[in-house]
């Protein structure tokens, strides 16, 4: 018992130190790129929605031309799912419209880092926990999103945090919290619903009795019902979050989703070059350089297939990964101005699920450390080049 208490104390101290260093680094990086590390952001859609809620309205009082707003029957609506507005609603009672958007995205990222670290560092693997938390969270297309709290980045990082928590808790057999958090993640990024296959497979892998799923399933259904009723109140459609009423898509010949976008997106996702005329491409490049953990994912899959070590939960994670990727490639764009390829970062929780089932939370190989080091240099440099 004393050894376990000492181990947990070391795990906690290492985590606190790592989070402090990461927060300091992100704040410094934000400042270097010209942003207030904890300031509000001009693209504060969720705060505006929260303020409208406080006035008893589901639409905004008027148009904000710089924001992506859905136009329906003469009113202006937030065109994104509502969950990210909930934290901003709470913060609005303290900060009003000037919510600390740039700080909030950093806290979401630190939460995801802590969750991965805690999952991996069990049984004294503190070094491995820090390494893999860095690889899964920081060395990715999420890094540039941690600098400023624009509406898109808030949604994506909160969805990432909630999905990572759902995966980690499912791996520990905690069905109720895992399923509830998964449902909340869908209310940030609807395509994260596909990760539910990986979450369910983890619960089955950990032999969680189906009767213990019931509270989580009920909570998830209630959360989903809230989304549907909110959509119904705004657009008269249980399943419409508002994106289809954005001018960008109402004016587009093929709409928001179409097979017509597939081929160009395939070329971008798998072969997009990070440089053009000596400068970083600012509208996305291939997902392996943008999120190097996908390189490891491919290697792990090949190794496990060859060795015939693929478990059903790993197969489910692979299926969820490629189904979600396919659906993303039907979208008109992969996120506009960006460093990396931020939509594909949504797939990282599926890789995490695969990783946890495979039992790879062991010592770090030298080549993996070299890959992480190279990835961090590349992503930090690219983020700086794009944002200055």
Descriptive notes:
With 388 residues, the chain is mainly alpha-helical. Helix content is 60%, strand content 3%. The chain is globular and about 60 Å long. The strands form 2 sheets. The protein has a two-stranded antiparallel sheet with strand order 1-2. Strands 3-4 form a two-stranded antiparallel sheet. The chain has helices spanning 2-32, 45-54, 85-95, 101-120, 126-138, 151-171, 175-186, 196-205, 214-235, 247-250, 262-271, 287-290, 293-306, 312-328, 348-358, 366-387, and strands spanning 69-72, 75-78, 275-276, 279-280. The mean pLDDT is 93.
Q: pLDDT under 50 segments (min length 5)? A: none
**How does the helix and strand content classify structurally?**
mainly alpha
Strand order of the largest sheet: 1-2
For the terminal residues, how far apart are their CA atoms? 52 Å
The average pLDDT score comes to 93
Number of strands: 4
**How large, in whole angstroms, is the Cα Rg?**
21 Å
Largest sheet: 2 strands, antiparallel
Summed up, the helix count is: 16
Order of helices and strands: HHEEHHHHHHHHHEEHHHHH
Fraction of residues in H or I helices: 55-70%
Percent of sequence in beta strands: under 5%
What is the general shape? globular
Q: Which keywords apply here?
A:
388 residues; mainly alpha; two-stranded antiparallel sheet; 16 helices; 4 strands; globular
How would the blueprint of this fold be written?
Elements: H1 2-32, H2 45-54, E1 69-72, E2 75-78, H3 85-95, H4 101-120, H5 126-138, H6 151-171, H7 175-186, H8 196-205, H9 214-235, H10 247-250, H11 262-271, E3 275-276, E4 279-280, H12 287-290, H13 293-306, H14 312-328, H15 348-358, H16 366-387
Antiparallel strand pairs: 1-2, 3-4
